[in-house]
Design brief:
With 74 residues, this protein is an alpha+beta fold. The chain is built from one helix and two strands. It has a two-stranded antiparallel ribbon. The longest helix is centred in the middle third of the chain and has 9 residues. The chain is globular and about 35 Å long.
Length: 74
Amino acid sequence: LAGPIRRAANDLDYRTDNGNPVIDAPLAADTDLESLRAALDAIPGVVGHGLFLTEADEVIIEEGERGRVTTIRR
């Protein structure tokens, strides 16, 4: 799993308030997110991730420039 480091508006690497880099990683639709979360949590040095798997009952996903929106409810 790898992706580009997010760039800030000034074209420098985007950093969190604590100075950590942010990596954007595209995922396949069939990615096992729970396994990915566990794997990321087990890596020494990984401060956090954006996989909030139990915090939302509804997710709205925008896809590309066409503006298609998919709503997922659980």
